[in-house]
């Protein structure tokens, strides 16, 4: 989806100097927040995170979840059985006596080993299949949950950069980690079963072996978890930069910016900027890699020392005769097996821990987004419009000190055409969005037939309002869908809206008519000129046939004929309905019932055209400026220039 170009609030091209959000210092707030969550605290949160992830999986598909857990656990049990059976093989082999008898004595256990490992292989295959089925289902569910929230949260959320970071982290990785948490948590459970088995064997052989064994693996586990956390911290710090890089990448590879990129030779600048952020990212990740390697080396060295101590203890037990050779042989096998199981367990734990960190990003997004949903409606849904009143409305965009609207009063009554005029940035579009129920005032109120719109069901309110947006979206959908939007596409209504807006002429030229996809990136797609798109956007607002039509700069890209036609349509449309018109073409608001003049977020004048002209204020000044531009011809040339009129082509 693309958005129509806008005169002022376009996404600014990156300034030639480095943007502050691309320097590492800007990332520090996240670090502060993160360092307060210690590794231990995070580890204690793991069981809950695993529980939550399992809940997601269960809701996605309970059978596959149950099969994933059940089959993996059963496979773990057979690993344990195999281990016990191996000790049954080794013991007779290491005891004295003739070899054929020893081998014969070991045969039943050997058969058990083979059966156990065969069963484990089958169960693991089944578990793998269940896991493979579960993964896309969980991802689909989390993705839909994410988009359900992003499409319902209040519009202001999209102006909050911190929230955008949270949303990016959830979209970029968090949402995909649920299934990884589950997979690694199941591995932890399976590993635990094997460990319990190996520990059982070791405890039976000699009590000192078990604690020694634990010591051999703990340093490695610590190193793995610490390395995972380092990586996560760095990636989290880099969120804003990565988001920025993503936006730059989009500009480098998108059709919308392709023309300006070339016209303004932005290629070098964008690639430099992209490279600069990539370098910051690369330097940060290289530092992490270095620190991770050191940590792992420390962990492995400590683990090596502990392993040596374990085998030294085993040797001491042998030398002192505290342990017979047959038992020692079994112990060596059990120690190796247990070490492998413990290492797998700790690896799974560290993966669970790492995935848990990313999954908590997703949970954090869900929590924050949940807090940004519109409150549950506590008033009746809005009835047919009689009157809309804004009183003392104050609104500041997130992160902005100065309010965009500061104590605004406006009245709109049924059947009226009300106009908002004022210079760029005076607050007209912001006010229109508040009146359209897209933003909520921070002080003051907007009342629809006397009831505060803040307590109304936003969708019910918006259903009564048609919007011709200044920043209309260019949806990669058919022309019919671009006009009807979420409503059913009705031919008669499409035709009427198209006639009123001038979109009929646009659609008549499309090869597939209303069915043409308005996006060149798709097969048989078509693109429109700026003015043609604007006619489609106007038809969109008119199609809804709502009580209140808000038209924000509906003619900025239209030619003179189309502009005249649209203003006539809007005035005709107002018969029995209501129109709020925002425009810089002041000639078109002369007929408005009431005109509000905004300046720096305040209403500085209001009244009809005659009254405002008589006051000689800002409106009169702006109106005269425009009128002069049409009437002032300057010094007349001695001889009027000859007009050249092209002949129509002969057919
Ligand atoms: N999303 C935003 N975040 C922060 N500030 C914003 C945002 N949108 C608008 N503003 C600021 O709010 C003020 C009012 O903007 P608004 O778009 O309402 O003006 P306008 O009168 O419609 O201007 P124009 O005639 O240029 O369309 C301006 O100072 C603008 O920079």
UniProtKB/TrEMBL annotation:
PROSITE patterns membership: ABC_TM1F (PS50929), ABC_TRANSPORTER_2 (PS50893)
Topology of this chain in the membrane: Multi-pass membrane protein
UniProt domain ABC transporter: residue ranges: 388-625
CDD domains recorded: ABCC_MRP_Like
Residue spans crossing the bilayer: 69-90, 110-130, 181-202, 208-228, 297-319
Protein name: ATP-binding cassette subfamily B protein/ATP-binding cassette subfamily C protein
Native organism: Murinocardiopsis flavida
SUPFAM superfamilies: ABC transporter transmembrane region, P-loop containing nucleoside triphosphate hydrolases
A GO CC term assigned to this protein in UniProt: plasma membrane
Localization terms from the record: Cell membrane
Keywords assigned by UniProt, alphabetized: ATP-binding, Membrane, Nucleotide-binding, Transmembrane, Transmembrane helix
Lineage of producing organism: Bacteria, Bacillati, Actinomycetota, Actinomycetes, Streptosporangiales
Record domain ABC transmembrane type-1: where: 66-354
Gene Ontology molecular function, alphabetical: ABC-type transporter activity; ATP binding; ATP hydrolysis activity; ATPase-coupled lipid transmembrane transporter activity
Nucleotidyltransferase found in the keyword field: no
């Amino acid at each position: 989806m693309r958005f129509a170009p806008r005169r002022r609030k376009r996404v600014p091209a990156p300034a030639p100097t480095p943007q502050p959000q691309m320097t590492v210092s800007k990332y520090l707030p996240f670090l502060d927040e993160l360092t307060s969550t210690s590794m231990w605290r995070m580890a204690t949160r793991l069981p809950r995170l695993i529980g939550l992830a399992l809940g997601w999986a269960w809701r996605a598909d309970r059978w596959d979840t149950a099969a994933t857990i059940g089959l993996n656990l059963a496979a773990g049990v057979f690993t344990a059985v195999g281990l016990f059976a191996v000790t049954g093989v080794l013991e007779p082999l290491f005891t004295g006596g003739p070899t054929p008898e020893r081998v014969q004595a070991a045969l039943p256990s050997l058969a058990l080993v083979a059966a156990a490992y065969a069963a484990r292989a089958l169960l693991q295959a089944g578990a793998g299949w269940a896991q493979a089925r579960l993964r896309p289902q969980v991802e689909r569910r989390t993705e839909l949950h994410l988009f359900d929230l992003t499409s319902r949260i209040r519009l202001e959320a999209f102006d909050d950069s911190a929230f955008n970071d949270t949303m990016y982290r959830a979209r970029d990785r968090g949402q995909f980690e649920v299934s990884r948490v589950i997979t690694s948590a199941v591995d932890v459970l399976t590993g635990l079963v094997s460990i319990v088995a190996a520990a059982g064997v070791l405890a039976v052989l000699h009590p000192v072996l078990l604690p020694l064994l634990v010591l051999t693996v703990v340093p490695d586990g610590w190193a793995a978890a610490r390395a995972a956390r380092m990586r996560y911290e760095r990636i989290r710090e880099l969120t804003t930069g990565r988001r920025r890089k993503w936006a730059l990448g989009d500009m480098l590879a998108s059709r919308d910016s392709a023309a300006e990129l070339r016209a303004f030779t932005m290629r070098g600048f964008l690639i430099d900027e992209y490279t600069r952020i990539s370098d910051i990212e690369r330097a940060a990740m290289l530092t992490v890699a270095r620190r991770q390697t050191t940590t792992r080396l420390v962990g492995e060295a400590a683990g090596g020392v502990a392993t040596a101590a374990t085998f030294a203890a085993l040797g001491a037990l042998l030398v002192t005769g505290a342990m017979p050779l047959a038992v020692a042989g079994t112990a060596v096998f059990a120690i190796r097996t247990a070490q492998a199981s413990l290492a797998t367990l700790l690896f799974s734990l560290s993966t669970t821990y790492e995935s848990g960190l990313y999954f908590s990003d997703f949970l954090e997004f869900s929590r924050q987004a949940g807090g940004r949903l519109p409150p549950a409606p506590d008033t009746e849904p809005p009835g047919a419009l009689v009157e809309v009143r804004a009183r003392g409305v104050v609104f500041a965009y997130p992160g902005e000190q100065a309010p965009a609207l500061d104590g605004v009063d406006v009245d709109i009554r049924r059947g009226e055409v009300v106009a908002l005029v004022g210079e760029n940035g005076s607050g007209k579009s912001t006010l229109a969005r508040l009146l359209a129920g897209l933003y909520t005032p921070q002080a003051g109120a907007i009342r629809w037939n006397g009831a505060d719109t803040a307590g109304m069901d936003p969708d019910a309110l918006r259903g009564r309002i048609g919007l011709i947006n200044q920043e209309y979206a260019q949806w990669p959908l058919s022309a019919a869908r671009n006009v009807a939007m979420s409503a059913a596409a009705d031919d008669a209504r499409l035709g009427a809206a198209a006639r009123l807006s001038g979109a009929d002429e646009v659609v008549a030229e499309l090869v597939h008519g209303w069915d043409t996809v308005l996006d060149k990136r798709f097969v048989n797609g078509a693109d429109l000129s700026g003015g043609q798109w604007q006619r489609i956007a106007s038809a969109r607002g008119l199609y809804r046939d709502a009580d209140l039509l808000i038209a924000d700069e509906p003619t900025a890209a239209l030619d003179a004929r189309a502009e005249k036609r649209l203003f006539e349509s809007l005035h005709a449309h107002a018969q029995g309905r209501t129109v709020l018109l925002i425009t810089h073409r002041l000639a078109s608001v002369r007929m408005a019932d009431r005109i509000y003049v905004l300046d720096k977020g305040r209403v500085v004048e209001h009244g009809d055209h005659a009254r405002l002209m008589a006051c000689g204020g800002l409106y009169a000044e702006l109106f005269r400026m425009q009128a002069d531009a049409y009437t002032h011809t300057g010094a007349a040339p001695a001889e009027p220039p000859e007009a050249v009129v092209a002949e129509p082509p002969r057919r």
